[in-house]
Design goal:
The structure is a homodimer.
Chain A: H1 21-29, H2 33-45, H3 50-57, E1 65-71, H4 77-90, E2 95-100, H5 112-118, E3 127-131, H6 138-154, E4 159-165, H7 170-177, E5 180-185, H8 190-203, E6 206-209, H9 217-229, E7 243-245, H10 254-271, H11 273-300, H12 305-315, H13 321-333
Parallel strand pairs in A: 1-4, 1-5, 2-3, 2-4, 5-6, 6-7
Helix pairs in contact in A: 1-2, 2-6, 4-10, 12-13
């Protein structure tokens, strides 16, 4: 297992180390946890070799199933992840876990007990676990997470599980990244469900009521089913998100969850949705990188002086912001 | 006074009405609250005439002092805004208020009592009050707020006061918009101060401890002063943010606040910082509009087909995302 702690957090101010990208990618493809860890670090740090890394990984990507697992703090995401990894391993799949979640024990935020629980996979060479640094801003994670998924795909993972905390817009982000999005809930969090339902209902492919041995689990499951039923009328062949009850701590219901995920993956493949979702995801990535490159070019225009010049014209009232933007765009094109 | 409720919220799905931009801008410059309201609505809705509006407003902008007022819910932002508007009016200034704050009574979120309080300015033709719709996402507000400031400037406001709720990144946004940023705090919110201090200390030009008749006001003021003192050593001539104690509900301390703001404005002018801040703000606006235009062009490339094509190459592993982004950028330039 590759532990997140094995690689020390690295600041942006450090000197860049020389990297032998072909060698490193070769080692990662051979299953070296150390090489995989270094590649994810390069991704997080936006290392100058990142472009070369992505080019070297490209031919080896696109085969893994990408699962998103999201839910509010306290619903048992890390326990469920651990149990789900166990089920996938029993099925012989190589699994990568990316914890993009400041509250996740895998990202170093929580109890040692939870971390120890994940230790059941600690000696398993078929499991990579990696926390994505939360020191970066969300924009940075939005770039780095799909790139880290590519690293794990190239390292031979059949499944990459991305765990994110379900607050604000992160559900939407994980749904943009994943083939199958699993939304976790727990009984007695009804208010939270109500508040979040608009976002949650739209992104979930599979719903889990975890801690189902607690009071109110049936009511929570019923509420979700009802809310799902209130949505747009489904056409024949549409996916109907199942609601699975689990007690991740004991493993109860985990096989059912794994089966529900497998059914969704089959549905994605048989309907062409898999290709469609992946193309949409790649389009988002490419567009974001293109815009970042264009922003860089704006900074390069005369050392940023052209933008400053146009800004002064705007301040003086001689140009409006749109006309100034037009000129900037024209300069980029020329 | 222009009340936010006078203009019904308008959905994006409505048909665009024809607009006689020169006439509307002329009426707004003549002080018509109705014309000002329509222009702000055009801004919020990103009406097709927006470019023409901005071009027509440009020669009449850049003269108003833009004040940002931010703070956590419950510190008394709306009461302070009301009292500050009174002080500015006694000084003969024309005042515009933009409430970009879902918790503000001006945006329709809160108690009728607070709304009534603002009514003291309701018959004053020298005051425009407008809530910015919170139905749009934050990105939309980031575009629309500076444009709405331009409308109020062109309508002859000497001061435009932008009220935002201080949560998350909005302090940073109001600071990017305003010449002078006023940060409001209240006694007994120590934890909030601690949590937010990093962001708050950097953006505040003037700090206010409102509800200063409550226990702990002196301690809160002392805490802020101390935290401000811990920052980077100041050079001679640097602005030292004052901490003003107010009881906005009774008007106590409001004249001192107005004076502190006026001193900051004098400092901005005498040091060239005013020009510098406004140029930086305009540069941000122009860059954002340029990037939006480029994003539009990406969508236009072959009806978005070029991006889809590149995305398919990425999914197939024949291109990496960076190489695809390079091709997209090259296509835009050609």
């Amino acid at each position: 297992v590759l532990d997140a702690e094995a690689e020390p957090p690295s600041g942006a101010s450090r000197r860049w180390q020389q990297v032998d990208v072909p060698a490193l990618v070769g080692q990662a493809r051979g299953g070296s946890p150390r090489a995989v860890g270094r590649l994810v670090s390069l991704v997080e740090d936006a290392h100058p070799a990142l472009r070369e890394v992505m080019a070297a990984l490209a031919p080896h990507t696109g085969r893994a199933a990408v699962l998103g697992l999201t839910g509010a703090p306290g619903v048992g995401k890390s326990t469920t992840t651990t149990a789900l990894v166990g089920a996938l391993r029993r099925d012989g799949r190589r699994v990568g876990v990316l914890a993009v979640d400041p509250t996740s024990p895998f990202s170093g935020g929580a109890l040692l007990g939870d971390r120890v629980r994940m230790q059941e996979h600690a000696t398993d060479p078929g499991v990579f676990i990696r926390s994505m640094a939360t020191r970066g801003h969300l924009g940075g994670l939005a770039r780095a997470t799909p790139q880290a998924v590519r690293v794990l795909e190239a390292a031979g993972c059949d499944v990459v599980l991305v765990e994110t905390v379900g607050v604000g817009q992160s559900e939407v982000e994980v749904a943009a990244l994943a083939d199958t999005t699993v939304v976790l809930l727990a009984p007695g969090m009804g208010d939270g469900i109500q508040a979040a339902k608009a976002g949650i209902l739209e992104v979930g492919d599979v719903f889990v009521v975890n801690k189902a041995d607690r009071e109110g689990a049936d009511a929570t499951a019923r509420d979700i089913s009802q809310m799902l039923g209130l949505g747009a009328p489904r056409r024949p062949g549409d996916w109907r998100p199942p609601v699975v009850k689990t007690v991740a701590a004991t493993g109860a219901g985990i096989d059912e969850l794994a089966q529900a995920i497998a059914r969704h993956q089959d549905w994605l493949r048989s309907t062409g949705q898999l290709e469609h979702r992946r193309a949409r995801r790649a389009a988002g990535e490419v567009e974001a990188l293109a815009l970042a490159a264009l922003r860089g070019r704006i900074g390069d225009l005369d050392g940023g002086g052209r933008l400053d010049e146009l800004a002064c014209e705007v301040v003086a009232g001689r140009l409006d912001p749109y006309a100034a933007a037009d000129r900037l765009v024209a300069d980029l094109g020329g």
